[in-house]
Amino acid sequence: KAPGAPPALGPPTVGTLPKGIKKSNLVNVFWNKVNLNKITGLPPSVPAYAAPKLEGTKSIWKERPEVKVDYDQLASLFTKKTIEAKKSVDTEKTTQMKVIRVLDGNRSREVGIAMAKLPASRHIKQAILNMDPSHISRESIASLAKLIPSDEEKNQITEAKLANPDIPLGKEEEYVHTLSVIPNIRSRLNIWAFMIDFDAMEDEVADYLMDLKECCQELQSCQTLHLIISYILEIGNFLRQEKSDGFEIMFLSKVADIKDTVKKQTMVHHIATMMHEHHPAQGDLHKEIGHTHRIGRISFDEVEVTMEKMDELCDRSWEDLRIISKHTSSTNDVMQKQLAFLKSVAERIDILKIVLRRVKNRYYNLLLYFGIDPVKKFMPPDEFCRIISEFALEYRTRIEAVILEVAKKKKMKERRKTRGIKITDIKNLVSGKHAGRPESSASTTPADPKNTKVLAKAKSRMSLSLPISGSRKQSNVPPRHPGHP
């Protein structure tokens, strides 16, 4: 026995029942008994005779600490209560099923559906006061905000309870009544929802501002875009027969609609051809402006609305916190947590406002860089970037087609070099021994067993195709020279 271990216990004891109480009067407890003598501690595949008993092994049932129990108190607490028989069975059923119903059908159904995903009414109050995220999620906060009773519903439930003190409330009415007694529940839910939503809202605005900043830098430094715009300007000046310093960026959306009258190819196709011919080292425009694509998919107005919403929610949360502080101690942990959060949020919102103003100035400079006056004709970032993004996608499609076409022509050119040449001369042509068309395979290359077999097969096929009688001159077949097809 180890020092400090609890005293060894004997077999379990059963307390003696007080006088006047029988076993049948006690509350039933159902469990499956554990028989230590039948536990082998080995898998079922091991025979019973080979399995040792748990006499020397540890078990919670052998090492459990000794406790003292007041059996008389247990008997008084867990004795079944006798229910007097009612005069009428119908009256008994009616009394058990009767509950107070105040809410209308639609409202009661709405509360019942929401209750299925919310904590029970006995836990909901403490979960809201402690802002316990393990019991209430963000979706549950929105559901609870809809279940907050109106003043009329509060009065109806209170009057019904006073008029029928012996009749319980219905499940839906009981849940609504529990919410009504939580002090400042709407203010608490508002602050809690803002604490959960703020991080996502801040990330949305901050990521957008970072992308817009990088977009301004990449569009001003993208050499591929500058070359393409130069080609468009040169072609446009030629077709218009006038000299223009530049064109509005909206014209990029119309470049794909302009086609030549001979091959019916778009201007983007011809620009891609020129770029591939004169600037083959330039990269893929579509990959070089990744931030531009992201800005083109997000509305700038929505970002500004989100920024204003964050500011409004912060101000409202300060007001809600002031209301809660009237009924809550200032030393409360939840209160301190809310106060520290709102102070941090106010500072972060001020920083985002400064960043937003500076990034806006960068975008204004970008518009001026492309010849657009932001005062006279302002273009939102999403519209401006969407035009460039769609043009980049069209350009990538055309440049890929041009590259495939050039590769195909190159392959056909290589194939023409070997057209009509004997199989035995292809190796020499590839190795560079032949300056021109070969004159004779016998005079240029030594006899090779493999080539000899190939030539023998070719001669046999030719002899089968020639007439049987007569010589080559009589058959009017011209002599076959090396190099001729």
Largest beta-sheet details: none
Multimeric state: single chain
- Rg over CA atoms, rounded to whole Å, is 45 Å
- Weakly predicted, low-confidence segments: 91-95, 434-445, 468-475
Distance between the termini: 105 Å
Give the overall shape, derived from the CA principal axes.
Answer: elongated
**Count of distinct strands:** 0
> How does the helix and strand content classify structurally?
mainly alpha
Order of SSEs: HHHHHHHHHHHHHHHHHHH
Treating each run of at least 4 consecutive H or I residues as one helix, how many helices?
19
As a percent range, the share of strand residues is under 5%
Overall pLDDT level: 79
What would the keywords be for this entry?
485 residues, mainly alpha, 19 helices
What would you say this structure looks like, in words?
With 485 residues, this protein is an all-alpha fold. Helix content is 58%, strand content 0%. It has helices spanning 60-63, 71-77, 89-97, 105-115, 121-130, 138-147, 151-163, 171-180, 185-221, 223-240, 267-278, 285-288, 290-296, 300-325, 333-369, 381-417, 423-431, 441-444, 449-465. The longest helix has 37 residues, at 185-221. The radius of gyration is 45 Å and the shape is elongated.
Give a short summary of the structure.
The protein is mainly alpha-helical. The chain has 19 helices and no strands.
Write the layout of secondary structure elements.
Elements: H1 60-63, H2 71-77, H3 89-97, H4 105-115, H5 121-130, H6 138-147, H7 151-163, H8 171-180, H9 185-221, H10 223-240, H11 267-278, H12 285-288, H13 290-296, H14 300-325, H15 333-369, H16 381-417, H17 423-431, H18 441-444, H19 449-465
Helix pairs in contact: 4-8, 5-8, 6-9, 9-13, 9-14, 9-15, 10-11, 11-16, 13-16, 14-15
